[in-house]
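FW: tagging you since you asked about this chain on Friday. Here's the raw sequence from the shared folder, copied in full. Didn't touch anything.
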Amino acid sequence: MNIAVLGAGSWGTTLAVLLANKGYHVRLWAHRPEFAALLEAERENTRYLKGVHFPDTLRVVDHLRNLVAWSEMIVTAVPSQALRETVLGFNDLPLDGKIIVNVAKGIEIGTGKRMSEVLLEVLPALQVSQVAALYGPSHAEEVSRQQPTTVVASSQSLQTAEKVQEVFHTHKFRVYVNTDIIGVEIAGSVKNIIAIAAGISDGIGFGDNAKAAIITRGMAEISRLCLKLGGDPVTISGLAGIGDLVVTCLSRHSRNRYVGEEVGRGRSLDEIISQMNMVAEGVHTSKAVYELSRAVGVEMPITQAVYEMLFEGKPAEKAILDLMTRDPKQERY
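HL: got it, structure written out here
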């Protein structure tokens, strides 16, 4: 099988190496020609994934349209807010028989669309049965070093999900299947917002009780939005939900938790982002989900608090106080 991986960040590179090690013919696409040439020459992504060497079956290219035409499976690993622009570059090409596997986690600002919805909107030749998502607790730093990891391949088509499972599954990278792509995408995207909140709690100096509350009530927010948008709340108890939420809120590898921790320590968002060389998806997603929650009438107080801290300059201590002094409620509402 010929597989294209679009996006040469840490996660795209990790998956390209994983697939090439399985014997597939893999081409990793980098947006900037000079970066593609550097990766191809050095056979290692020293910027985003130092120490992980490329197999011989992995090549790095910058020609998007030729790559898409050549491939049988396309893995989209560009940042979520760049997905639309990227796939517009080949939206006139035939896609018969191809599967697109999105691994970027986020909700598009301005439209409130999940990534599979963006793909289907921009690519008129694409059928819903050709789209899948691969989500779960899977930091690139660990997967690239073959640490045990489990994820879920989700598509409305069980056959497509099972094909993705077959392609990606290894003895160290276990893949389950799920047909609730709405729930998987919502859970995998909104958890980044909750991770920012958990990081803010750490940065302020709060303890384990506060973080446990954020994770648990964050799950409640994800479940309410999932149900409202047509997903199955049971999905939130799976790998794309609680699994990814826990690892992102607790891990030292989490860029979203790091952003929150620095905000909690009093640094400005612009200063934090300017010193990072990778994208923290939860920053943009907090804006998109805040707007989406208001549009569909779902109460998401933690998401709102993160949005206000990041984009309206609300002091972290004030945001936490407002959360704690909301009117008492039943646990399930």
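FW: The beta strands are 2-6, 25-29, 44-45, 49-53, 58-61, 73-76, 99-102, 131-135, 149-154, 173-178.
HL: agreed, and Residues 182-324 form a domain with the N-(1-d-carboxylethyl)-l-norvaline Dehydrogenase; domain 2 fold (CATH 1.10.1040.10).
FW: great, closing this out.
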